[in-house]
Design goal:
Keywords: Signal. GO terms for molecular function: carbohydrate binding. By secondary structure, the chain is of the alpha/beta class. The chain has two domains: 161 residues, Response regulator (Rossmann fold, 3-Layer(aba) Sandwich); 125 residues, Rossmann fold, CATH 3.40.50.2300. It contains twelve helices and twelve strands. The longest helix is centred in the C-terminal third of the chain and has 18 residues. The protein starts with a helix and ends with a helix.
Length: 312
């Protein structure tokens, strides 16, 4: 562990013992700001976790996310949240260079912060209470190892938002699992551009035998395109995160696996941590890993039912 992380952890312990505790009947107000776009199915489950926890714990929570990934818009959301001096802030950090300064400002102003989904490496250096999510590099490497076990030798990793730390880390881990034999294909977030780029690559590189998508934004349009081209099941195809179309393809044996990071918990647990911290001055002493879990043909049906209920 870095010295800065050790010092930050010590600061957290001291803060927990001296933090002014809320009374049982005090209304706690939390704000969540994430980079997860409104059109991403992942975000609906994440938001459900936030809302369920807020209702069960009797706190007020406002959830904010941009319609499209936009650093400047997310920065404004964080600044606006800080200005209201909430009792707690839950936030994702997809780009440490852009978001470290305002998040540090929030913490220094006395707002407890829990980082979720992305920002594991920087969260404690900033002084956050906890990180709730998965280790993205490790998850990418595990995905690569599983693909290799399936016989894949020349895959591509589709990065639809180069520069977002969690996606870059996933691709890096995946590539390392193949000892450099995997290739990263960078695209935009436009579904048509993604499918065009992937199909062009496959046509130009017929030895490509595996495709890893980093999220539903790319996976769902690729499922449609692969089905249209009769390619489903003919190439090893796997993804991060879940969507109904993804789970059906995994269930039917058309996709190798999907990686579930349990985003419901990524919404639920930060609210719980912030509430307990405000009321009792207690906080978990280690980060909470919510993934990755592999969804395969063996367990996809059960997850489909939970997806319909909004929990997966």
């Amino acid at each position: 562990m870095k010295l800065t992380s050790i010092l930050a952890a010590g600061a957290i312990a001291l803060t927990a013992s001296s933090h002014a505790l809320a009374q049982q009947d005090d209304q706690l107000n939390f704000i969540a700001v994430t980079h997860i776009t409104a059109g991403d199915p992942f975000g609906n489950v994440l938001k459900r976790g936030f809302e369920d926890a807020a209702e069960e714990l009797g706190v007020s929570l406002r959830y904010n996310s941009p319609a499209q990934y936009d650093t400047s818009q997310m920065l404004r959301m964080i600044e606006q949240a800080i200005a209201t001096q909430p009792d707690g802030l839950a936030v994702t950090i997809p780009d440490a260079s852009a978001f470290a300064k305002p998040i540090r400002k929030a913490i220094e102003s006395g707002i407890p912060v829990v980082v979720l989904n992305t920002g594991e490496d920087i969260s404690h250096e900033l002084g956050a209470l906890n990180y709730v999510g998965q280790s993205e590099y490790r998850a990418g490497k595990l995905a690569g190892e599983r693909m290799r076990e399936a016989g894949v030798e020349h895959p591509i990793c589709i990065n639809f938002a180069p520069g977002q730390s969690q996606l870059d880390a996933r691709c890096q881990g995946f590539t390392d699992a193949f000892e450099g034999a995997a290739e990263q294909l960078s695209t935009t977030q436009d579904p048509t551009a993604i499918t065009n780029a992937v199909m062009a690559h496959l046509n130009s590189n017929p030895d490509t035998d595996g495709v890893l998508s980093l999220g539903s934004l790319a996976t769902v349009p690729l499922i449609t395109e692969f089905q249209k081209q009769g390619a489903m099941g003919k190439i090893a195809f796997a993804t991060f995160d879940l969507a109904p179309e993804t789970l059906e393809a995994v269930r039917d044996g058309e996709m190798l696996f999907a990686m579930d990071q349990q985003q419901y918990l990524q919404g639920y647990l930060p609210v719980q941590i912030l509430a307990q911290y405000n009321r009792y001055g207690v906080v978990p002493t280690t980060d909470i890993q919510t993934g990755p879990n592999f969804i395969t043909q063996d367990n996809a049906e059960q997850v489909i039912e939970l997806t319909k209920q909004g929990y997966r």
